[in-house]
């Protein structure tokens, strides 16, 4: 008997685990930067700079210094800060253009095997995101990419950002499950560590290209997670799907 014998649902970290955020944001940033005369800015570096503000922005909410604020709003604020760092005045760029670039996070492509893998896993388990993304973002992403979630759960469900324990526990509660009946699938060891502390089952799937060719973190599991797989197809095989 394994811990998976009692698991009824798999919930997935999304940014980096299900979708390739770096390539997607860079793809949409390239024409934006060109239109505004910044051919000298590497679109991948732009994506990295935008993403670098992700955790600090959420930490303002986690710490209580700011009320819970959905990720679309935080992304937009972070975008304006990154543009200002580049010497581009957001006030001189149309609201519609800024909003469209901000929705690059809604249009990210899944990793090559992700959709087929989730589809296989869905045969045995309920599948849903457990992401810091908001419901509108995750719904648009799933619709465009064909990710077959059984439910779309955004961070608004928990009113908390990972790795706060509420993010995991309230997700289990909403799905009508006890924590040991829920497994987090993630490419990030720290996310899995927090999920395990909340009582969830854990599955590690590495995404060694998430941060580009120079990635050094999360290449391997750092703890004995309940499952370790090469990708979602391999995870489906290991779980008998």
UniProtKB/TrEMBL annotation:
Record SUPFAM superfamilies: HAD-like (SSF56784)
Q: Which residues form a coiled coil?
A: none
Pfam families the UniProt entry points to = Hydrolase
Keywords from the named record: Hydrolase
Question: Which InterPro entries does UniProt cross-reference here?
Answer: 2-HAD (IPR006328), HAD-like_sf (IPR036412), HAD-SF_hydro_IA (IPR006439), HAD_sf (IPR023214), S-2-haloacid_dehalogenase (IPR051540)
- List the NCBIfam families hit by this protein, alphabetically: HAD-SF-IA-v2 (TIGR01493), HAD_type_II (TIGR01428)
Protein's name according to its UniProt entry: Dehalogenase
Source species of the chain:
Microbispora corallina
